[in-house]
Specification:
The chain has three helices and two strands. The protein has 65 residues and is mostly helical. The protein is elongated, with a radius of gyration of 12 Å. It starts with a helix and ends in a 9-residue tail after the last helix.
Length: 65
């Protein structure tokens, strides 16, 4: 999960610029990764989910509206 979060953070600028989608393929890929993360997150213990939530605050509404 951490690797996916890191990849999303690094690839964000190639997909989004000033809140606008600049590369549809990259944006779609990031959405796929976010969907994967959500699925993985359902199986985590509460404490780990809290850590992931805190990390995701760095990117509020950046991809999923």
């Amino acid at each position: 999960m951490v690797h996916l979060l890191d990849y999303i953070a690094q690839d964000y600028d190639s997909a989004i610029n000033n809140g606008e989608i600049k590369n549809e393929n990259e944006y779609s890929e990031l959405l796929d990764f976010i969907t994967t993360l959500k699925g993985l997150g359902h199986n985590l213990p509460f404490k780990t989910k809290k850590i992931v939530l805190i990390y995701s605050v760095e990117f509020p509404n950046c991809l999923t509206g």
